[in-house]
Each structure stands twice: as C-alpha cells, then as structure tokens.
C-alpha cells in the first residue's frame, strides 16, 4: 500500500480481491478496489481490453460490454464494502434482488469503468446498497442491490 | 382482532403473499416463500412494524406463526388485549 492509497482508504489488488471474494476468471470483473471504507463504501476499477473473452461474440462488428457483465462489475465492487470486514472475508454471496438498473451508454474496448459502491445496511447476512459506474466521470451504469451471505443466513434458520 | 394482531398478520401477508386464512397453521418451510431468505425478511419486517430488536435465539426459535406469537410476548407484544 503506498502513501496515496493510504490517504484514500484501503487498497486491494487482484490477489487481495481474491482473498475477499470467490469470483474468479473468467467471471472476476474488477481489477482494483480502492478507497475502501469497510462496512461503508468502496471504489473499483475495471479496464475493458479487446482481449476480454466476450468482445468477439458481443458483437463481432460492434464490440461492447454486455449488460450482465456491467452488473457483475458493479456488484463485485459493491460486495467489497462488506467482504473487506475481517469476519466476512472470503465468503460466498448470492443475489437476492437487483433494482433500478440503468445503462446510459455503451462501453467499448479500451475504456476504463470506475465504480462507486455504497453499503446502506448490513444485517444478519443481508446487504443492501447501490453502485454506479463512470467513464470519464460520465455516469454509465447503475443499480441497487440486495445480496446475501448464505453462510450467515443459515445460522438464523429456524430449527424444525 | 386487536391492532397488534392485525399488524402481525399483515406482516406475514405482505412478506409471503399469503392469504390470512392460511396463517394459523403456517410453519417455516411450509411454503416456498418462507425459506432462510424469507425468514430474514419476516424478522426484519416484524422488527420494523413493532419497533423491536429480536435476539438471535428468538429468531432461530421462530419456527411458526403460532410460535412467533409466544416469542413476541417477551417483547411486550400481546395479542390478547
């Protein structure tokens, strides 16, 4: 961690991100996470190179980032807001809901998405919050998420 | 029906989309909506509706509609007033 990133909060590169979340290539869609305030917020960077596996297929004549990958990029930064807490590090997560998804413009090869994610609440294994992606400071995509940590939910299951 | 019972029933109905006539014998996992995720939603809605914070042991013991009424008595929520 250098002095700049210390000023900006916690910084996570790929090996550190992999310690926090279980997404892996070809479905790990955040390259760096920075300015992390565990339990509060996180920022992420995803660089989309033409070498991404999906560009040749989506689409051959007009490569752009599929919407589901934009959502994954947003949520993978969002989950870093709570998977950076020591007690949740490395746990699997599941979507419970995605709301208010908005795509403002295409993302094409060579562009870098900056994601801002905020955790509104985290209670008994259920996280609620939102994330927004920007390219050149222009809002590109956004969504609200409810995500669960199944390991924690299971500890509250009624005994029958 | 007292106001607290009305509130209790409406939380179940809104959380699970279930008819009031089916509540009395309802147990955890009787319906697909009352799974581990639905259980957390139910607990959160009851806490909001009654302005309480339930203990972990009570959340685990809350295994049916009837059992829930017994548990809520601990939080001074009586359905017989």
The CATH fourth-level homologous superfamily of chain A: Hotdog Thioesterase
CATH topology of chain B: Non-ribosomal Peptide Synthetase Peptidyl Carrier Protein, Chain A
Structural class of chain A: alpha+beta
Number of helices of chain B: 4
CATH fold-level topology of chain A: Thiol Ester Dehydrase, Chain A
| CATH architectural category of chain A | Roll
Q: List the chains of the largest interface with their residue counts.
A: A-B, 14 and 15 residues
In helices, the fraction of residues of chain A equals 10-25%
Structural class of chain B: mainly alpha
Q: Give the fraction of residues assigned to helices of chain B.
A: 40-55%
Name the poorly predicted regions of chain B.
none
SSE map:
The complex is a heterodimer of chains A (160) and B (81).
Chain A: H1 3-7, E1 10-12, H2 14-20, E2 32-37, E3 41-47, H3 67-78, H4 80-83, E4 94-103, E5 112-123, E6 126-135, E7 138-148, H5 150-155
Antiparallel strand pairs in A: 1-2, 2-3, 3-5, 4-7, 5-6, 6-7
Chain B: H1 3-16, H2 36-50, H3 56-61, H4 65-73
Helix pairs in contact in B: 1-2
Give me a quick take on this structure:
The complex is a heterodimer of chains A (160) and B (81). With 160 residues, chain A is α+β, with helices and mostly antiparallel strands.
